[in-house]
Amino acid sequence: MQNQYKRLMRKCITLAKKSYGRVSPNPLVGCVIFDDDFNIVSEGRHEKYGENHAERNAILNAPCDVKGLSLVVNLEPCCHHGKTPPCADLIIEKGIKKVVIGMVDPNPVVAGKGIEKLKKAGIDVVVGVLEDECRELNKIFIKNQVVKKPYITIKTATTLDGKIVGRTRKPEKITDEVSRYEVQKLRNQYDAILTSSKTVINDNPYLTCRMKSGRNPIRVVLDTNLSTLASSNVYNNDGTKVIIMTSDKISNEKVKQYPENIEVIKCGTKNNHIDLNCAMEILYKKGIKSILVETGAILNKSFIEEDLMDELIQFIAPKVMGDDTAINWVSGFDREYISKCNNLKIMSTKILKKDIMIVCKSKN
Ligand code: AOF
Ligand code: ZN
Protein backbone atom coordinates (compact mmCIF):
# COMPACT_ATOMS: atom_id res chain seq x y z
CA MET A 1 0.00 0.00 0.00
CA GLN A 2 2.83 2.39 0.93
CA ASN A 3 4.33 1.91 -2.55
CA GLN A 4 1.02 2.85 -4.15
CA TYR A 5 0.78 5.94 -1.93
CA LYS A 6 4.31 6.90 -2.94
CA ARG A 7 3.50 6.52 -6.63
CA LEU A 8 0.42 8.72 -6.26
CA MET A 9 2.34 11.26 -4.16
CA ARG A 10 4.98 11.49 -6.90
CA LYS A 11 2.14 12.32 -9.27
CA CYS A 12 0.99 15.10 -6.88
CA ILE A 13 4.52 16.53 -6.83
CA THR A 14 4.72 16.45 -10.64
CA LEU A 15 1.35 18.23 -10.87
CA ALA A 16 2.40 20.83 -8.28
CA LYS A 17 5.58 21.64 -10.21
CA LYS A 18 3.51 22.76 -13.19
CA SER A 19 2.66 25.81 -11.09
CA TYR A 20 6.25 26.95 -10.53
CA GLY A 21 6.40 30.72 -10.47
CA ARG A 22 2.61 31.10 -10.41
CA VAL A 23 1.52 30.60 -6.79
CA SER A 24 3.95 32.53 -4.58
CA PRO A 25 3.60 33.29 -1.67
CA ASN A 26 1.40 30.20 -1.47
CA PRO A 27 2.69 26.62 -1.57
CA LEU A 28 3.00 24.33 -4.58
CA VAL A 29 0.25 21.75 -4.20
CA GLY A 30 -0.96 18.85 -6.33
CA CYS A 31 -3.76 16.41 -5.53
CA VAL A 32 -5.13 13.16 -6.96
CA ILE A 33 -8.30 11.26 -6.16
CA PHE A 34 -8.08 7.47 -6.46
CA ASP A 35 -10.30 4.41 -6.14
CA ASP A 36 -9.84 1.18 -4.16
CA ASP A 37 -7.64 -0.26 -6.93
CA PHE A 38 -5.36 2.81 -6.74
CA ASN A 39 -6.48 4.04 -10.15
CA ILE A 40 -6.45 7.80 -10.54
CA VAL A 41 -9.98 9.12 -10.99
CA SER A 42 -9.20 12.82 -10.95
CA GLU A 43 -6.34 15.28 -10.47
CA GLY A 44 -5.91 18.95 -9.68
CA ARG A 45 -3.35 21.49 -8.63
CA HIS A 46 -3.19 24.96 -7.16
CA GLU A 47 -2.72 26.81 -10.43
CA LYS A 48 -2.48 30.44 -9.54
CA TYR A 49 -2.15 32.57 -6.42
CA GLY A 50 -5.55 33.45 -4.97
CA GLU A 51 -7.38 30.75 -6.91
CA ASN A 52 -8.71 27.33 -5.91
CA HIS A 53 -6.55 25.06 -3.81
CA ALA A 54 -5.41 21.75 -5.30
CA GLU A 55 -7.92 19.62 -3.38
CA ARG A 56 -10.88 21.69 -4.56
CA ASN A 57 -9.69 21.49 -8.17
CA ALA A 58 -9.23 17.71 -7.96
CA ILE A 59 -12.77 17.36 -6.58
CA LEU A 60 -14.22 19.74 -9.20
CA ASN A 61 -12.40 17.91 -12.01
CA ALA A 62 -13.78 14.49 -11.02
CA PRO A 63 -15.96 12.94 -13.75
CA CYS A 64 -18.08 11.17 -11.08
CA ASP A 65 -19.28 11.47 -7.50
CA VAL A 66 -16.19 11.26 -5.24
CA LYS A 67 -18.09 9.72 -2.30
CA GLY A 68 -16.19 6.72 -0.94
CA LEU A 69 -13.03 7.52 -2.92
CA SER A 70 -9.61 8.48 -1.45
CA LEU A 71 -7.39 11.51 -1.94
CA VAL A 72 -3.62 12.15 -1.94
CA VAL A 73 -2.17 15.61 -1.47
CA ASN A 74 1.40 16.77 -0.81
CA LEU A 75 0.36 19.33 1.86
CA GLU A 76 -2.13 19.01 4.71
CA PRO A 77 -5.57 20.27 3.61
CA CYS A 78 -6.37 23.69 5.03
CA CYS A 79 -9.03 24.32 7.66
CA HIS A 80 -9.17 28.13 7.52
CA HIS A 81 -11.32 30.58 5.61
CA GLY A 82 -8.81 32.39 3.42
CA LYS A 83 -9.26 33.36 -0.19
CA THR A 84 -11.22 30.13 -0.56
CA PRO A 85 -13.27 28.10 1.99
CA PRO A 86 -11.48 25.30 3.92
CA CYS A 87 -10.50 22.25 1.84
CA ALA A 88 -10.94 19.97 4.89
CA ASP A 89 -14.65 20.90 5.02
CA LEU A 90 -15.09 20.18 1.34
CA ILE A 91 -13.36 16.78 1.66
CA ILE A 92 -15.65 15.87 4.58
CA GLU A 93 -18.77 17.14 2.82
CA LYS A 94 -17.98 15.14 -0.33
CA GLY A 95 -17.61 11.88 1.60
CA ILE A 96 -13.94 11.13 0.82
CA LYS A 97 -13.01 8.12 2.98
CA LYS A 98 -9.21 8.34 3.15
CA VAL A 99 -6.71 11.22 2.89
CA VAL A 100 -2.99 10.57 2.29
CA ILE A 101 -0.82 13.60 3.12
CA GLY A 102 2.83 14.37 2.36
CA MET A 103 3.54 16.87 5.11
CA VAL A 104 1.92 18.91 7.86
CA ASP A 105 1.27 22.53 6.82
CA PRO A 106 3.86 24.84 8.47
CA ASN A 107 1.39 27.73 8.20
CA PRO A 108 0.40 28.36 11.86
CA VAL A 109 -3.27 28.86 10.95
CA VAL A 110 -3.38 25.25 9.72
CA ALA A 111 -0.45 23.36 11.39
CA GLY A 112 -2.15 20.04 12.18
CA LYS A 113 -5.63 21.44 12.64
CA GLY A 114 -6.65 20.34 9.14
CA ILE A 115 -5.60 16.76 9.94
CA GLU A 116 -7.47 16.87 13.27
CA LYS A 117 -10.64 18.03 11.55
CA LEU A 118 -10.49 15.19 9.00
CA LYS A 119 -9.86 12.59 11.71
CA LYS A 120 -12.72 13.91 13.84
CA ALA A 121 -15.03 13.44 10.88
CA GLY A 122 -14.03 9.76 10.79
CA ILE A 123 -11.75 9.98 7.75
CA ASP A 124 -8.77 7.61 7.65
CA VAL A 125 -5.69 9.91 7.51
CA VAL A 126 -2.13 8.86 6.56
CA VAL A 127 0.58 11.50 7.09
CA GLY A 128 4.24 11.65 5.96
CA VAL A 129 4.28 9.85 2.60
CA LEU A 130 7.42 11.01 0.71
CA GLU A 131 7.77 13.70 3.33
CA ASP A 132 11.35 14.66 2.36
CA GLU A 133 10.38 15.16 -1.29
CA CYS A 134 7.30 17.16 -0.26
CA ARG A 135 9.40 19.37 2.00
CA GLU A 136 11.92 19.91 -0.80
CA LEU A 137 9.09 20.91 -3.16
CA ASN A 138 7.91 23.56 -0.71
CA LYS A 139 11.29 24.60 0.75
CA ILE A 140 10.52 28.26 -0.04
CA PHE A 141 7.07 28.17 1.58
CA ILE A 142 8.49 26.41 4.66
CA LYS A 143 11.29 28.95 5.13
CA ASN A 144 8.84 31.84 4.68
CA GLN A 145 6.39 30.40 7.21
CA VAL A 146 8.99 29.44 9.79
CA VAL A 147 11.44 32.38 9.75
CA LYS A 148 9.59 35.02 7.69
CA LYS A 149 12.56 35.52 5.37
CA PRO A 150 13.13 34.95 1.66
CA TYR A 151 14.70 31.70 0.47
CA ILE A 152 18.00 32.61 -1.18
CA THR A 153 19.84 30.56 -3.79
CA ILE A 154 23.18 31.51 -5.30
CA LYS A 155 23.69 30.24 -8.82
CA THR A 156 27.15 30.14 -10.38
CA ALA A 157 28.60 28.91 -13.65
CA THR A 158 32.30 28.18 -13.38
CA THR A 159 35.28 26.34 -14.76
CA LEU A 160 36.64 23.35 -12.85
CA ASP A 161 38.97 25.74 -11.04
CA GLY A 162 36.05 27.89 -9.92
CA LYS A 163 36.56 30.82 -12.31
CA ILE A 164 33.74 32.88 -13.75
CA VAL A 165 35.67 35.28 -15.99
CA GLY A 166 39.19 35.48 -17.39
CA ARG A 167 41.87 38.14 -17.22
CA THR A 168 40.31 40.33 -19.93
CA ARG A 169 37.06 40.55 -17.85
CA LYS A 170 35.22 40.07 -21.12
CA PRO A 171 32.17 37.93 -20.29
CA GLU A 172 32.31 34.60 -22.10
CA LYS A 173 29.98 31.63 -22.01
CA ILE A 174 31.55 29.08 -19.71
CA THR A 175 28.82 26.44 -19.46
CA ASP A 176 26.95 24.84 -22.37
CA GLU A 177 23.38 25.36 -23.60
CA VAL A 178 21.95 22.54 -21.46
CA SER A 179 23.26 24.18 -18.29
CA ARG A 180 21.99 27.53 -19.46
CA TYR A 181 18.54 26.05 -20.02
CA GLU A 182 18.59 24.76 -16.43
CA VAL A 183 19.24 28.36 -15.35
CA GLN A 184 16.19 29.47 -17.34
CA LYS A 185 14.15 26.89 -15.45
CA LEU A 186 15.43 28.28 -12.16
CA ARG A 187 14.56 31.83 -13.20
CA ASN A 188 11.00 30.63 -13.81
CA GLN A 189 10.78 29.33 -10.23
CA TYR A 190 12.04 32.25 -8.16
CA ASP A 191 10.11 35.42 -7.34
CA ALA A 192 13.15 37.59 -8.06
CA ILE A 193 16.58 37.48 -9.59
CA LEU A 194 19.17 39.66 -7.93
CA THR A 195 22.50 41.02 -9.09
CA SER A 196 25.04 43.75 -8.38
CA SER A 197 25.74 47.03 -10.14
CA LYS A 198 29.15 45.59 -11.01
CA THR A 199 27.59 42.66 -12.90
CA VAL A 200 25.20 45.03 -14.70
CA ILE A 201 28.08 47.30 -15.72
CA ASN A 202 30.48 44.51 -16.75
CA ASP A 203 28.13 41.98 -18.36
CA ASN A 204 25.01 44.02 -19.20
CA PRO A 205 22.74 40.95 -18.72
CA TYR A 206 18.99 40.84 -19.42
CA LEU A 207 18.18 38.47 -16.54
CA THR A 208 14.97 37.36 -18.21
CA CYS A 209 13.45 33.89 -18.45
CA ARG A 210 13.61 32.67 -22.04
CA MET A 211 12.09 29.30 -21.25
CA LYS A 212 9.01 28.22 -23.23
CA SER A 213 5.89 29.14 -21.21
CA GLY A 214 8.14 30.58 -18.49
CA ARG A 215 7.70 33.95 -16.86
CA ASN A 216 10.18 36.66 -15.96
CA PRO A 217 11.17 37.02 -12.32
CA ILE A 218 11.28 40.48 -10.75
CA ARG A 219 14.75 41.95 -11.38
CA VAL A 220 16.61 43.45 -8.42
CA VAL A 221 19.89 45.36 -8.76
CA LEU A 222 21.92 46.33 -5.70
CA ASP A 223 23.49 49.65 -6.68
CA THR A 224 24.83 51.53 -3.64
CA ASN A 225 25.95 54.62 -5.57
CA LEU A 226 23.51 54.44 -8.50
CA SER A 227 26.35 53.86 -10.94
CA THR A 228 24.43 51.70 -13.45
CA LEU A 229 23.25 53.31 -16.66
CA ALA A 230 19.51 53.76 -17.08
CA SER A 231 19.95 52.25 -20.56
CA SER A 232 21.28 48.92 -19.19
CA ASN A 233 19.53 45.81 -20.57
CA VAL A 234 18.33 44.83 -17.11
CA TYR A 235 16.19 48.00 -16.97
CA ASN A 236 14.50 47.21 -20.27
CA ASN A 237 10.81 48.03 -19.93
CA ASP A 238 9.31 44.64 -20.84
CA GLY A 239 6.52 44.80 -18.27
CA THR A 240 8.56 43.01 -15.60
CA LYS A 241 8.95 44.71 -12.24
CA VAL A 242 12.46 46.12 -11.74
CA ILE A 243 13.83 47.28 -8.40
CA ILE A 244 17.06 49.11 -7.66
CA MET A 245 18.20 49.06 -4.04
CA THR A 246 20.46 51.97 -3.26
CA SER A 247 22.01 53.74 -0.30
CA ASP A 248 19.79 55.88 1.90
CA LYS A 249 22.35 58.65 1.38
CA ILE A 250 21.63 58.97 -2.34
CA SER A 251 19.89 62.18 -3.42
CA ASN A 252 16.44 62.16 -5.00
CA GLU A 253 17.96 64.05 -7.91
CA LYS A 254 20.14 61.03 -8.74
CA VAL A 255 17.18 58.68 -8.45
CA LYS A 256 15.36 60.63 -11.17
CA GLN A 257 17.78 59.45 -13.89
CA TYR A 258 15.92 56.12 -14.01
CA PRO A 259 12.65 55.72 -15.90
CA GLU A 260 9.42 55.48 -13.95
CA ASN A 261 8.96 51.75 -14.47
CA ILE A 262 11.88 51.21 -12.11
CA GLU A 263 11.31 51.34 -8.39
CA VAL A 264 14.32 52.77 -6.55
CA ILE A 265 14.36 51.80 -2.87
CA LYS A 266 16.72 53.39 -0.38
CA CYS A 267 18.30 51.09 2.14
CA GLY A 268 20.86 51.20 4.95
CA THR A 269 24.51 50.40 4.17
CA LYS A 270 27.25 48.37 5.81
CA ASN A 271 30.93 48.82 4.86
CA ASN A 272 29.88 51.05 1.95
CA HIS A 273 27.65 48.38 0.43
CA ILE A 274 23.90 47.80 0.71
CA ASP A 275 23.17 46.14 4.04
CA LEU A 276 21.96 42.76 2.82
CA ASN A 277 19.89 41.91 5.88
CA CYS A 278 18.09 45.21 5.58
CA ALA A 279 17.59 44.73 1.82
CA MET A 280 16.22 41.19 2.27
CA GLU A 281 13.76 42.40 4.89
CA ILE A 282 12.48 45.14 2.60
CA LEU A 283 12.13 42.74 -0.34
CA TYR A 284 10.35 40.14 1.81
CA LYS A 285 7.85 42.76 2.96
CA LYS A 286 7.26 43.65 -0.69
CA GLY A 287 6.19 40.04 -1.31
CA ILE A 288 9.48 38.66 -2.68
CA LYS A 289 9.67 35.26 -1.01
CA SER A 290 12.49 33.68 -3.00
CA ILE A 291 15.59 35.16 -4.61
CA LEU A 292 18.00 33.73 -7.16
CA VAL A 293 21.34 35.52 -6.85
CA GLU A 294 23.31 35.67 -10.11
CA THR A 295 26.31 37.83 -9.53
CA GLY A 296 30.07 37.98 -9.01
CA ALA A 297 32.68 37.25 -6.37
CA ILE A 298 32.11 40.16 -4.01
CA LEU A 299 28.34 40.01 -3.63
CA ASN A 300 28.39 36.21 -3.45
CA LYS A 301 30.86 36.51 -0.61
CA SER A 302 28.63 38.99 1.21
CA PHE A 303 25.58 36.73 1.01
CA ILE A 304 27.58 33.84 2.46
CA GLU A 305 29.24 36.03 5.07
CA GLU A 306 25.86 37.28 6.29
CA ASP A 307 24.59 33.66 6.48
CA LEU A 308 21.89 34.46 3.96
CA MET A 309 22.52 31.69 1.45
CA ASP A 310 20.11 28.75 1.74
CA GLU A 311 21.24 26.96 -1.39
CA LEU A 312 24.12 27.01 -3.85
CA ILE A 313 23.67 25.71 -7.37
CA GLN A 314 26.95 25.46 -9.21
CA PHE A 315 27.24 24.57 -12.87
CA ILE A 316 30.77 23.43 -13.64
CA ALA A 317 32.15 23.18 -17.16
CA PRO A 318 34.99 20.77 -17.98
CA LYS A 319 37.41 23.65 -18.52
CA VAL A 320 40.37 25.01 -16.61
CA MET A 321 41.52 28.62 -16.64
CA GLY A 322 44.54 28.19 -14.41
CA ASP A 323 45.04 31.93 -14.34
CA ASP A 324 45.57 33.71 -11.02
CA THR A 325 44.18 36.93 -12.43
CA ALA A 326 40.89 35.25 -13.43
CA ILE A 327 37.94 35.85 -11.11
CA ASN A 328 36.54 33.20 -8.76
CA TRP A 329 32.78 32.88 -8.23
CA VAL A 330 33.43 33.94 -4.63
CA SER A 331 36.45 35.60 -3.06
CA GLY A 332 37.71 37.82 -0.29
CA PHE A 333 37.19 35.71 2.80
CA ASP A 334 39.65 35.71 5.67
CA ARG A 335 41.29 32.38 6.41
CA GLU A 336 39.29 31.92 9.62
CA TYR A 337 36.17 31.94 7.56
CA ILE A 338 36.86 28.53 6.13
CA SER A 339 34.87 26.72 8.82
CA LYS A 340 31.73 28.60 7.84
CA CYS A 341 32.19 27.99 4.12
CA ASN A 342 32.56 24.30 4.80
CA ASN A 343 29.14 24.16 6.30
CA LEU A 344 27.37 22.92 3.17
CA LYS A 345 25.62 19.68 2.38
CA ILE A 346 25.62 18.26 -1.15
CA MET A 347 22.02 17.49 -2.09
CA SER A 348 22.55 16.28 -5.64
CA THR A 349 25.01 16.11 -8.50
CA LYS A 350 23.91 15.69 -12.07
CA ILE A 351 25.91 15.25 -15.25
CA LEU A 352 24.28 17.41 -17.91
CA LYS A 353 25.42 17.32 -21.53
CA LYS A 354 29.02 18.31 -20.83
CA ASP A 355 28.82 20.10 -17.50
CA ILE A 356 27.92 19.07 -14.00
CA MET A 357 25.30 20.65 -11.78
CA ILE A 358 25.88 20.50 -8.05
CA VAL A 359 23.18 21.50 -5.60
CA CYS A 360 24.28 22.25 -2.02
CA LYS A 361 22.37 23.50 0.97
CA SER A 362 23.54 25.44 3.98
CA LYS A 363 23.23 23.27 7.08
CA ASN A 364 22.16 26.10 9.34
C1 AOF B 1 -2.70 27.06 -1.46
N1 AOF B 1 -2.97 26.07 -2.33
O1 AOF B 1 -3.54 24.01 -2.80
C2 AOF B 1 -3.30 24.59 -0.55
C3 AOF B 1 -2.98 25.63 0.38
O2 AOF B 1 -4.26 32.43 0.55
P1 AOF B 1 -5.26 31.32 0.71
O3 AOF B 1 -6.49 31.73 1.37
O4 AOF B 1 -5.51 30.65 -0.62
O5 AOF B 1 -4.62 30.22 1.70
C4 AOF B 1 -3.32 29.85 1.57
C5 AOF B 1 -2.95 28.81 2.61
O6 AOF B 1 -3.70 27.63 2.46
C6 AOF B 1 -1.50 28.38 2.49
O7 AOF B 1 -0.66 29.22 3.22
C7 AOF B 1 -1.54 26.97 3.05
O8 AOF B 1 -1.38 27.04 4.45
C8 AOF B 1 -2.92 26.47 2.76
N2 AOF B 1 -2.99 25.43 1.70
N3 AOF B 1 -2.70 26.84 -0.15
O9 AOF B 1 -2.45 28.18 -1.90
C9 AOF B 1 -3.28 24.84 -1.94
N4 AOF B 1 -3.61 23.36 -0.14
ZN1 ZN C 1 -7.11 24.52 1.06
Can you walk through the features of this model?
- It is a single chain.
- This protein is of the alpha/beta class and 364 residues long.
- The protein has helices spanning 2-17, 54-61, 87-93, 113-120, 131-137, 139-147, 177-189, 197-203, 252-255, 276-285, 297-305, 338-341; strands at residues 30-34, 40-45, 70-75, 98-103, 124-127, 151-158, 163-165, 192-196, 218-222, 242-247, 262-267, 269-270, 273-274, 290-293, 311-316, 327-328, 344-351, 356-362.
- The longest helix is centred in the N-terminal third of the chain and has 16 residues, at 2-17.
- It is built from twelve helices and 18 strands.
- The protein has two domains: 2-143, Cytidine Deaminase, domain 2 (3-Layer(aba) Sandwich); 149-362, Dihydrofolate Reductase, subunit A (3-Layer(aba) Sandwich).
- Helix content is 28%, strand content 25%.
- The chain is elongated, with a radius of gyration of 23 Å.
- The model has no long low-confidence stretch (mean pLDDT 94).
- It has a nine-stranded mixed sheet with strand order 11-10-9-8-14-6-15-18-17, sandwiched between helices. A five-stranded mixed sheet has the order 2-1-3-4-5, with helices on both faces.
- Bound molecules: ligand AOF and zinc ion (ZN).
- Residues 23, 26-27, 29, 46, 53-54, 75, 78, 82-84, 87, 105, 107, 110 line the site of ligand AOF.
Secondary structure elements and their pairing?
Layout: H1 2-17, E1 30-34, E2 40-45, H2 54-61, E3 70-75, H3 87-93, E4 98-103, H4 113-120, E5 124-127, H5 131-137, H6 139-147, E6 151-158, E7 163-165, H7 177-189, E8 192-196, H8 197-203, E9 218-222, E10 242-247, H9 252-255, E11 262-267, E12 269-270, E13 273-274, H10 276-285, E14 290-293, H11 297-305, E15 311-316, E16 327-328, H12 338-341, E17 344-351, E18 356-362
Parallel strand pairs: 3-4, 4-5, 6-14, 6-15, 8-9, 8-14, 9-10, 10-11
Antiparallel strand pairs: 1-2, 1-3, 7-16, 12-13, 15-18, 17-18
Helix pairs in contact: 3-4
The protein binds ligand AOF and zinc ion.
Ligand AOF binds at residues 23, 26-27, 29, 46, 53-54, 75, 78, 82-84, 87, 105, 107, 110.
